[in-house]
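Consider what follows.

. . .
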Amino acid sequence: MTDKLAFLKTVKPFHLLPEEVLRGVADLLQEVRYTKDTALYHQEVTKMKGVDLIAAGEYESFFYDSEQNKRVVEHHHSGYCYGGISVLLNRKRSLRSVIAKKGTLVYFLPRRDFRQLCQGYENFFHHFTAEFGRRMLNDEFAHFVKKPTAFEDNFISSDQLYSRKIESLVYRELVVCSAETPVYEAARMMAEKKVSCLFVQDAQGQIIGYLTDITIRDNVVAKQVSVQEPVHGVMDNPIVRINTQAFVYEAILLMFRTKTRYLLVENNGQYVGFLSRNKLLSEQAQSPFVFIQSVKLAQSVQELRRKWEKVPEIVYQLLDRGVKPEIVNQVITTVSDTITTKVIEGVIAEMGTPPAKFAFMVLGSEGRKEQTLNTDQDNAIIYEDKANEQRELVREYFLRFAEQVSERLDMIGFSFCKGGFMAKNPKWTHSLSHWKRNYSSWMKEPDPETVMKFSTFFDCRYIYGEAAIIDELREYLDQELQEPLGRFLYHMAKNALQYVPPLTFFKNIKTFTKDGQEVFDIKKTMTPIVDLVRVYALKERVFKTNTGERLEALRAMGEFSDTDYHELMHSYYYLMSLRLKKQAVQIIHDKAEPDNFIDVRGLTKIEQVTLKEIFKTIANFQASIKLKFTNSLLG
């Protein structure tokens, strides 16, 4: 027991665990000895029953190629843990082939016990996702991990991921305490109940926060707060909840978006349990959400660039498996938001705490959560109003801050906006009062050029900083939009109606020649739907930014019939799927910059017929509202 305990303290990441936990782990270890050249695991075949901690001797791990040659050969010695990545991220199958050398002694930890450690200790779990992320930076390693033979198996789980609901999962029972419970007593409850999260209730029985091992470390021990203090003074919040009828992928995206590690599960207005991020991720094998977690753990701009370069492969694979394009958009957006957040945090760490509260917002397709693989930067900064003597200091900081953020995003692969709609442009980094004046002038003194130029600012979405600043701007816009704004909506509608679907008089697809190909611009084809749905959303004061979410809200308000809603949703996301797949193929197979031009000759007959029907739907959509917006609004 003593020898095993001392050994565990030398093994990464077991040294991260508390002493009392290590003692329990030491009791669970099973001693196994191997003779010369014992073949232990075969890549993608052997099911891992647990993890191996090498105490003495050597493991040789490698991939077999199609000629049965050993590739990416590595030798592991005392203190190495093999199998963690395989159990967590590879459907419990050994990721590599392994041979044990003569005189090898291994301490074996059963899979169930290993998983419990991962669920209970986030840093322990992160060690394996981070190691996998680092390994995937090696092109040869990544090639064998993502080989086509394994692809079908890897994404069987992702099919379930996008169709499986929260109600099908096993969630943990809630353990709660009152807001006045002393910290030491709360910690004792967590130990007794063997939970890593304790929820806090107020006097009315409402859950107002939660306490975790990390909360106690950061908010109590690190700050030398007395353990006699009530938990309401140290607890974490906000509380994030999800309904049992939501999908698993929605839960994971919500966790990444809100940065929470725990979700309360709600059914008919009652909390029925909770889910942890570690549990959800560890069950998703090769899903894109493990990749997103690896993005969160990236340490440099170069590493973030490599992560972004992997996105086209994920997009192509998801679409090829029939995952809905609106979900693929969300995956792209979540990766993009995560990268931007990492960049912002890095710049703040270097420049120091900002001299004022601020919100970093994204615009256009990124603001609508409809980002594609041909993307540039569209962003802006709003900071709180300050007294006269501080204004220049605050403005100077945020302009330098914006410059650095934009430069790093450009290095990662988000190119500078050709129109200059970026925070690094002094026009788009300003105080809240200045932004209110901007929006007011665009709405109250509109002309065609202004509306065309600044419509993208009505798709703004907060991703970092003080959400309250964006909330105040939205409240202001809500008030302004209740005023008579006929000319503004008129010009917005006129702008949207200038894009004509590419259909000839004889209902064939209208093309133009580019580089010897007969193409149409799919981005321009989608624009009328985006623009016209935005006009409706502004008219009805719907502040969602995503086109699909706007359509859903407008249908609920009676602005669109069920038939119109379904036809527009189908049309928009069919085009999105075609656009994303084309761009992914250009990047992966052609090693070319992605664009928005679709060669008609490369489409199947069915695709061509479908596109013609979609173009008719868009044309009918334009015609049906032309009179309403261009004639009646001015009256």
